[in-house]
Specification:
Number of helices: 5
Subcellular location: Nucleus
Mean pLDDT: 81
Order of helices and strands: EHHEEHEHH
Catalytic activity: Endonucleolytic cleavage of RNA, removing 5'-extranucleotides from tRNA precursor
CATH class: Alpha Beta
Distance between the termini: 63 Å
Main location: nucleus
Low-confidence stretches: 177-184
Enzyme class: hydrolase
InterPro entries: Pop5/Rpp14/Rnp2-like, Rnp2-like_sf
């Protein structure tokens, strides 16, 4: 029996513009590597890739990647994903990722998807994700040691504040929609 051979793409999501609702000013490096929205999921990423491949390569491309396209790992907190795709057609997936410029409609945030590693095994892809995470933590600790503001703490506070604001907005929207529904 023939084994199906795959490639694993390690992808980073970069956000060149601040979030539309964000009132906190973060350093550029932190802004670009900011966490993905919680509403962004692996299923939406697969849909975006399939739509991108179909747009670039038509039904042929869509058929070639359909059998083994899968998101093995998607972390909104680190804005990183590992995508499994067919070995012979991984370039199609890479091209589709390159041409994606915005997250899907409900979010509608500008994004740059950067493929940082192509691997033949999931183990090496996972090791790359871990290595990159450790490197970011080392840079953050080194930056703290130079007398700058405690970067990890300031980023955590900013993200927590942003999420609390989003929850408050959603709560007020939910309260308003319930009261409208009762009056009808």
């Amino acid at each position: 029996m023939v084994r199906v051979k795959n490639r694993y793409l390690v992808v980073n999501f970069l956000y060149p513009e601040p979030a539309p609702k964000s009132k906190t000013q973060l350093p550029d490096l932190i802004q670009i590597h900011s966490p993905s929205p919680d509403a962004f999921s692996a299923g939406k990423l697969v849909r975006m890739i399939r739509d991108g491949v179909e747009e670039l390569y038509g039904d042929y491309g869509s058929g070639m990647i359909a059998s083994s396209l899968k998101v093995n790992y998607c972390s909104p907190s680190t804005s990183t994903a590992i995508i499994r795709c067919p070995r012979d057609h991984y370039e199609m997936v890479w091209a589709a990722l390159t041409y994606i410029t915005r997250l899907p409609k409900p979010l509608d945030i500008p994004v740059v998807m950067r493929v940082v590693r192509v691997s033949g095994t999931i183990k090496k892809a996972e090791e790359e994700v871990i290595r990159r995470s450790q490197q970011i933590i080392k840079r953050a600790r080194a930056w703290e040691g130079t007398g700058g503001l405690p970067m990890l703490q300031s980023v955590e506070k900013a993200v927590d504040k942003e999420r609390r604001n989003e929850i408050e907005v959603l709560a007020t929207v939910d309260d308003g929609s319930e009261s409208e529904g009762m009056s009808e």
